[in-house]
Amino acid sequence: MHISTQFYLWKFFMYQMTTEFLNKAARTKNYSGAELEGVVKSAVSFALNRQITMDDLTKPLDEESIKVTMDDFVNALHEITPAFGASTDDLERCRLRGIVDCGKAHKHIYQRAMLLVEQVKVSKGSPLVTCLLEGPAGSGKTAMAASVGIDSDFAYVKIISAETMIGFSESSKCAQICKVFEDAYKSQFSMIILDDIERLLEYVAIGPRFSNLISQTLLVLLKRVPPKGKNLLVVGTTSEVGFLESVGMCDVFSVTYHVPKLKKEDAKKVLHHLDVFDDGDLDAAAEALDDMPIKKLYTLVEMAAQGPTGGSAEAIYAGEKIDINHFFSILSDIIRY
């Protein structure tokens, strides 16, 4: 007997009208009607697949045992993603090691950034809020911006970076950047991350050279007020704040925060979290890492974890400790940081 898709859709909604379903429904922010229909049909297909026996495809389906569970719904959400949703996977890639306590300065900047998120949510007179995170390369600017985007719980969060536009012409880059902003205007609350703005502008210190076309595009978009009822937060990151000042880019950001390198006390907190040094060696290691970008710190620790001859990483991460002398040897190989 053929059972129509409409029957399964009806059965899906009747079965799932529970508190758990309503909680899961909050995950469908920014889904269009067609995309929601796709989610439902995908969930139904997962339920149907459980009833199909590959050894005997002619076996009739047991209608009473066909039920769409919450697991089917979750799997469908993973399979069908909204075109105008948050790029969670891209944001998570920007903070592969997560976020750890690395000092008062970083914590203060994160808290200030989250206040800007709150401002975007409640403000009636500031539909556009912009923030620039500047600091040395590897100081954690992108990871912090990504964390703010994830924790903001905005329906639309996108990151614009040069790595996604390799080989694009200047006009193509401008068109792509404009499209992201136009898509952001379709949601009530949105956030855009402009990662490594100097790379987006194709900046080269020799000359200097940069793309004036992309620069003017960003300047216009960073001043453009979103449509009525739409609020937008833009967070930019840069390691060349002097260059951005020279082209007038810093002036269009509402606030600018300096993300510093780690001091001795900050490095000690990170090393304590990693738990790869003996307590007696922690101070010496932290002293050696004074004024170190956090990204470089992670790299050095991972290099030292391999051991003098390699193959020690698994044991280190299982509980053994890094030899402090080997760590100093690795550190001495770093000419510049």
TrEMBL record:
Its EC number is 3.6.4.6. Belongs to the AAA ATPase family. It comes from the Eukaryota. The keyword Protein transport applies. Its cofactor is Mg(2+). One of its GO terms (molecular function) is ATP binding. Binds 1 Mg(2+) ion per subunit. Residues 127-265 form the AAA+ ATPase domain. Pfam families: AAA, AAA_lid_3. GO terms for cellular component: cytoplasm. InterPro entries: AAA+_ATPase, AAA_lid_3, ATPase_AAA_core, P-loop_NTPase, Vesicle-fus_ATPase. Required for vesicle-mediated transport. Catalyzes the fusion of transport vesicles within the Golgi cisternae. Is also required for transport from the endoplasmic reticulum to the Golgi stack. Seems to function as a fusion protein required for the delivery of cargo proteins to all compartments of the Golgi stack independent of vesicle origin. It comes from Zea mays. PANTHER family: VESICLE-FUSING ATPASE (PTHR23078:SF3), VESICULAR-FUSION PROTEIN NSF (PTHR23078). Keywords: ATP-binding, Cytoplasm, ER-Golgi transport, Hydrolase, Magnesium, Metal-binding, Nucleotide-binding, Protein transport, Transport. This is Vesicle-fusing ATPase. It catalyses: ATP + H2O = ADP + phosphate + H(+). One of its GO terms (biological process) is protein transport. The gene is LOC100193565. It is found in: Cytoplasm.
